[in-house]
């Protein structure tokens, strides 16, 4: 079963705009991770936020985590055409030592 | 170069045949994983292994088998019992099992 669900399923923006994707999950977590997947490729890890953290930054990426609402958001600022990809959240829920992935948001950045 | 390799990139098989997908890593990671991805979907866990000679079933293990005889290798066999094997298969590894996972480029399997 999938723990995380991303919203929206698809997002199309102009280059230079900001892109925000949301992830909701069902059970308590140790950490939440965001990954990017270019079409037909493997996933690339973007950022990990622990359950006791509320916000984390990495370059143009900003991730927030609200454990009371069981939700996270990924903000990509000043988007570029190269940011076009699918973005997945993944939750680590404890002793199983495995990640559960959401269904992803397909981001298209138009030049 | 350190990383994960999967081979082949594309694989075609006839229905009823078993097929083995290769996954090798030189990152010295203990944990390795196999995922299946269907078009427009997220990843679903097939099997994972935390140490050599040990592995556990994931959410969709039926029709698949794995082995972990060496730390760097985690091959996946798609058996004829898997009812709908056509999919994109991704292998990943992790140093601890709790942190980030490193993914291979994937193998696209088509069964006709």
SSE topology:
The complex is a heterodimer of chains A (111) and B (112).
Chain A: E1 5-7, E2 10-14, E3 19-24, E4 31-37, E5 43-50, E6 55-58, E7 61-66, E8 71-76, E9 85-92, E10 99-101, E11 105-110
Parallel strand pairs in A: 2-11
Antiparallel strand pairs in A: 1-3, 3-8, 4-5, 4-9, 6-7, 7-8, 9-10, 9-11
Chain B: E1 4-7, E2 10-13, E3 19-25, E4 31-37, E5 43-51, E6 54-57, E7 64-66, E8 76-78, E9 87-94, E10 102-103, E11 107-111
Parallel strand pairs in B: 2-11
Antiparallel strand pairs in B: 1-3, 3-8, 4-5, 4-9, 5-6, 7-8, 9-10, 9-11
Q: What labels would you give this structure?
A:
heterodimer, A: 111 residues, mainly beta, six-stranded mixed beta sheet, five-stranded antiparallel beta sheet, 0% helix, globular, B: 112 residues, seven-stranded mixed beta sheet, four-stranded antiparallel beta sheet
Produce a short descriptive summary.
The complex is a heterodimer of chains A (111) and B (112). Chain A is 0% helix and 56% strand. Chain A has 111 residues and is mainly beta.
Structure characterization notes:
The complex is a heterodimer of chains A (111) and B (112). Chain A is 0% helix and 56% strand. Chain A is built from no helices and eleven strands. In chain A, the strands form two sheets. In chain A, strands 2, 4, 5, 9, 10 and 11 form a six-stranded mixed beta sheet that branches. A five-stranded antiparallel beta sheet of chain A has the order 1-3-8-7-6, with no helix packed on it. In chain A, strand 9 and strand 10 form a beta hairpin. In chain A, 35% of the residues are buried. Chain B has 112 residues and is mainly beta. Chain B is built from no helices and eleven strands. The N and C termini of chain B lie far apart (36 Å). The model of chain B has no long low-confidence stretch (mean pLDDT 93). At the A-B interface, strand 5 and strand 10 of A face strand 4, strand 5, strand 9 and strand 10 of B.
